[in-house]
C-alpha cells in the first residue's frame, strides 16, 4: 500500500443554509494490492485514518473491490466504485478505482520488535481488538485484564495472558494499554497507574477520562507517555478529530451532535412504531446496547461525551443545565427526533428535539453519530459515522494505535 497527499483543496457544501464548510486539507492517493482478509482490513483502516484527518481517499485497487467496500461499510465509510476517468465527479469520502497495482502489504513491515500491547476488558470492543492484534506481527499481546477468568467470551483469550489485577497487567511491561473497560472507576485507576509508569494508554472508556481529561493529559506528558482517546466519543465517527480540526481553524462558538448510538437506534425504532421493550431488545441483540443500558437511557453517556468535547473546545468542561432521559414513558413529538448534545463556552444540554429538515441529523440511521462544530467566523465542520458496535469502535482504537506506532520509537 502506498499513499501520497495531493494538496488540491475541494469545496464541500455546509449542511447549514448559506454557509460552506472548509474543504478537505488534502486528498490521499493510495495504491492497493488486496491479497487476503488482513489486507482488506488494513486498507479499510487506512481509509479511516485519512478521513478522520479530513481527507478524501482515492484508491486504485487490484483485487476484490466489492469486498473492500463491504469492509468500509462496517466502519461507516461511504464508498463509490468509479471509472478511472470519473473520480473528479465523485464526492464520497472513499473512491475505489479498479486497476492493476503492484503493491505491498504494509502490515508485513515490522518494527525492530513487536509492540507489547495489554488489553483491559475483552468484551465487545476489547474482543474485536484481540482478534485483530493476534493476527498482526507488528504487535504482541502480553496481557488481558478481565473481571472473571471463568466467564466464556468470544473470542476466548489465551488463558496464559489473562489476569484480574492491575498490578499483574503492569508487570507484563506493556508499551501500551488499550482501555476497553466499561467501568469508569476501574478505567481511571488503570489509566492513572499506567501513565504514571510511563506506559502509553489508548482509551475507549469515556466514563474514566471525562471528569479528569486535562489531568490525564498532563500526567502523560510528564512521564513521556502517549494518551489517546478517539474512541471515547463517537465510536467509529471521527468526532474528536473533527472538533480539533475546527479548533485549529479558529475559535469554536458552538458544538452540537448526536453522541449516543444506542439512543439513536432506539429513537429510529420508536419512530417506526416499535414498542420500547422490543427496540431495546433489538439494540442488545445487534450489539448497539449494553446489557445494562442505564448510562445510555439516562443521558449520562451523551453528557460525558459532551463534557469531553467541551473541554477540548474551550479548555474546560461546560456545565450542563439539562439532561433528559429516555424511557417507555417519555413523550416524544412526531417526526424524526434526535438526542442532541449541545454546548457553548457557557452552558450545555442533552435534550430530545425534532430535526426535520436538518440534513446532518434527520436521516441519521441506526447506531450512527454525527457532530456539527460552528466556529466564531461561521465556518462549520461536520462528521458522521457508526457510533456503536464492535468494529467501528475497535477501528477508532486501532487508528490511535497505528498513530502511536508512527509517532513513537516503541
The average pLDDT value, as a whole number, equals 87
Strand content: 15-25%
Shape: globular
According to DSSP, the number of beta strands is 19
User: Gyration radius, to the nearest Å?
Assistant: 21 Å
The side-by-side strand order for the widest beta sheet comes to 10-9-8-11-12-13
Q: Spans of 5+ residues with little confidence (pLDDT < 50)? A: 1-24
Number of helices: 13
Major β-sheet annotation: 6 strands, parallel
Gap between N and C termini, in Å?
22 Å
> Pairing-aware structural class of the strands and helices?
alpha/beta
* Percent helix: 25-40%
Written account of the structure:
There is one protein chain. A hairpin with a 6-residue loop joins strand 2 and strand 3 (20-21). Helix 1 (37-52) packs across helix 2 and helix 3 crosses helix 13. The relative contact order is 0.13. This protein has 13 helices and 19 strands. By secondary structure, the protein is of the alpha/beta class.
Amino acid at each position: 500500500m502506498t499513499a501520497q497527499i495531493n494538496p488540491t483543496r475541494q469545496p464541500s457544501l455546509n449542511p447549514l443554509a448559506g454557509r460552506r464548510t472548509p474543504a478537505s486539507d488534502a486528498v490521499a492517493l493510495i495504491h492497493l494490492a488486496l491479497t487476503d482478509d488482513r489486507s482488506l482490513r488494513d486498507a479499510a483502516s487506512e481509509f479511516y485514518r485519512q478521513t478522520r484527518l479530513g481527507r478524501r481517499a482515492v484508491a486504485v485497487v487490484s483485487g476484490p473491490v466489492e469486498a473492500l467496500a463491504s469492509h468500509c461499510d462496517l466502519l461507516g465509510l461511504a464508498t463509490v466504485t468509479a471509472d478511472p476517468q470519473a473520480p473528479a465527479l465523485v464526492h464520497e469520502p472513499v473512491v475505489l478505482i479498479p486497476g492493476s497495482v503492484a503493491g505491498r502489504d504494509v502490515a508485513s513491515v515490522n518494527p525492530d520488535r513487536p509492540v507489547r500491547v495489554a488489553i483491559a476488558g475483552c468484551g465487545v470492543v476489547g474482543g474485536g481488538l484481540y482478534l485483530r492484534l493476534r493476527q498482526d506481527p507488528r504487535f504482541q499481546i502480553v496481557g488481558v485484564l478481565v473481571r472473571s477468568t471463568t466467564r466464556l467470551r468470544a473470542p476466548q483469550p489465551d488463558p496464559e495472558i489473562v489476569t484480574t489485577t492491575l498490578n499483574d497487567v503492569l508487570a507484563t511491561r506493556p508499551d501500551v494499554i488499550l482501555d476497553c473497560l466499561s467501568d469508569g472507576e476501574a478505567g481511571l485507576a488503570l489509566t492513572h497507574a499506567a501513565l504514571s509508569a510511563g506506559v502509553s494508554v489508548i482509551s475507549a472508556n469515556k466514563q474514566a477520562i471525562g471528569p479528569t481529561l486535562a489531568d490525564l493529559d498532563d500526567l502523560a506528558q510528564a512521564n513521556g507517555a502517549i494518551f489517546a482517546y478517539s474512541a471515547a466519543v463517537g465510536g467509529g465517527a471521527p468526532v474528536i478529530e473533527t472538533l480539533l480540526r475546527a479548533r485549529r481553524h479558529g475559535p469554536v462558538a458552538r458544538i452540537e451532535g448526536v453522541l449516543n448510538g444506542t439512543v439513536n437506534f432506539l429513537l429510529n425504532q420508536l419512530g417506526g412504531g416499535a414498542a420500547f421493550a422490543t427496540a431495546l431488545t433489538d439494540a442488545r441483540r445487534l450489539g448497539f446496547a449494553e446489557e445494562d443500558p442505564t448510562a445510555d437511557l439516562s443521558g449520562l453517556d451523551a453528557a460525558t461525551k459532551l463534557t469531553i468535547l467541551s473541554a477540548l473546545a474551550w479548555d474546560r468542561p461546560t456545565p450542563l443545565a439539562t439532561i433528559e432521559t429516555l424511557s417507555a414513558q417519555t413523550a416524544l413529538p412526531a417526526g424524526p427526533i434526535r438526542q442532541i448534545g449541545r454546548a457553548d463556552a457557557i452552558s450545555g444540554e442533552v435534550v430530545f428535539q425534532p430535526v426535520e429538515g436538518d440534513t446532518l441529523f434527520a436521516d441519521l440511521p441506526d447506531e450512527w453519530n454525527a457532530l456539527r462544530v460552528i466556529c466564531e467566523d461561521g465556518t462549520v465542520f461536520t462528521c458522521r459515522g457508526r457510533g456503536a458496535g464492535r468494529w467501528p469502535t475497535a477501528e477508532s482504537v486501532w487508528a490511535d494505535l497505528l498513530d502511536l506506532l508512527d509517532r513513537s520509537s516503541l
